[in-house]
Design brief:
Chain lengths: ~375, ~290
Amino acid sequence: MSKQKQKILEVSTGEHFTTGNHAAAEGALAVGCKFFGGYPITPSSEIAEHLALRLPQLGGNFVQFEDEIASIIGILGASWGGVKSMTATSGPGYSLMVENIGLGMMTETPCVIINVQRGGPSTGLPTLVGQQDIMQTKWGSHGDFEPIVLCPSSVQECFELAIEAFNYAEKYRLPVTLLLDETLGHMSERLIIPDASKIRKVERKKPKDSPEEHLPYKADDDLIPPMAVAGEGYKVMVTGLTHDERGYPNLNVETQDKLVRRINDKIRLNKKDIIRVEEYMLDDAEFAIIAFGSVARAAKGSINRARKKGIKVGLLRLITIWPFPDERIEALAEQVKKIYVPEINYGQVTREVERSVHGKTEVKGIFKLGGAIHNPQEILKEIEGDA
Amino acid sequence: MTEDQNELLESEAHPLDGFLREGRIPHIFCPGCSLGSITNVLIEAINESGIDPKKVAVVSGIGCTGRIAGYLNFDSFHTTHGRSIPFAIGLGVTDPERKVIVISGDGDLFAIGGNHFIHAARRNANITVVCVNNFNYGMTGGQAGPTTYAGQFQTTAPYGSLEDPFNIPNLAASCGAVYVARYTALDVRRVKESFSEAIAKNGFSFVEVLGSCPTTYGRRNQLAEGKKILEFFAEKTVLNHDADTRDVRIDKNSPIIVGKFVDIEDKPTLTDNLLALQRVSQAKKG
């Protein structure tokens, strides 16, 4: 961050030239994150390093845990202690976290996980970019749940979506994943942090009834239960077992059905509020690119070049990856002759796009395995071949 | 018998009623299991500690002992297998006044959760950890674990366990725990005193309670009733507070050494250090 902004403030208002990782960390602080638990892993470590410096200044706590499993469960514990909490990792660490992300889903615990993607599988490409965790963030943990996953594609958006990740986590009571990639995490560009008064903060809904009357997992009409935390006298009972409205384990078909439907439906029924896309030159488009993360930047370059050549192509940039913007994509399929999906993996979002278009248009994945983002020319070449 | 005692006998209420969650009883524990009496003395110890019940949180992992948190009428958390300790750390540091007690089994805390245990002791997390060691995995049907002693029979050690178990008090002590004790479930009075001492400590306090599991441990090892296991403890136990923790390993033939092995004062806790860091970092930049 720039030198002149060293005052101890949650919101580092001003203009900065910084990285996606630092911007995401500042976004978390701006929205009131007060606990970080993490474990070093490339290419996410700068987030932990930045928060190790900043959190104590703001009366928060930074704990470097012994592994990623401890990190995720530590932030769940902190969330039940009543503070906004987060961790940051990359693919291998996220793999270690998924069981307890499931605990967070089942116990409806607000928190944020930043995953700065690198190339996989396994140790893969620690220092190089990947977009191979799309499916892991949806299906990594066992059981049925609807995650919220946000995917920025600029340093500015790393800051803004870190805030929104917390806001969704608090509003819908679940762990939210902010999906960066190595390119975005490590690239520097301009970041403008607004005045503190301009930061939109959502806080978890609190119970209005007394501890004697309170049922910790009785949802309101919006399917979200108000959240009492430890120390408030509500004697919360929290378990990863199938539980009833009292929070008590109740291992039968009816309770499971009611609970698991609700934790999915609270997201499904609010897709309109959660799904965000950016449309770029789509109005008259005959061809479309669907891209996300750092690759969306290259896609815009391809579109600018194509437009100069008279090819009508536009971009649908996915900001929300999960829940998947399938209805918007189906509408797009009715408009364009072909959809191109460049992604740094061997076909993850492409399959979701194929599912969404219901055969209404052709879908072509443009895959790069981990290591580099697409060159705009590579995407352009594919489109030129069809135009 | 005094009048008060008579009244108590005639009453349908139990003096610790308010400490158990209504509607959660009957519990799942087997006949002869010691978890009932251990739960009972844990509640008594918490009650007598004088800590505001609002400031008490109990965290468990998975397993028979892992079910205890869910019966207690405090803020209670039944987490995932092995992960109670880091959950308790996150929960604890958010309120320095909060007393967080972890109670879980030997498999949970020392096999799948072993890494968390040693690091929590090293960083002197301000939590009390109670391990009920029943020498096997009870809930899953009696498999061998990291506390199963060589020669002990379990479903995954049908020819007798080949491995040496952890010497748990020594592990805790060597990693920096400020309070380490071990007692058997037979000696509930000492277990309770030990819980009280552990709860009163600042820092990582640890009590190992050797429990009775007649169903899955006992019946494969000629100890098929709770009473037989307690008799076994009575016969084999030697009380020695001054024992060197290196000498308290459990094996088939040696006496079981119990006592309070470690009790260190005034070691700064993780929470103390985090709060001190906040003050220093704010002063530096302010």
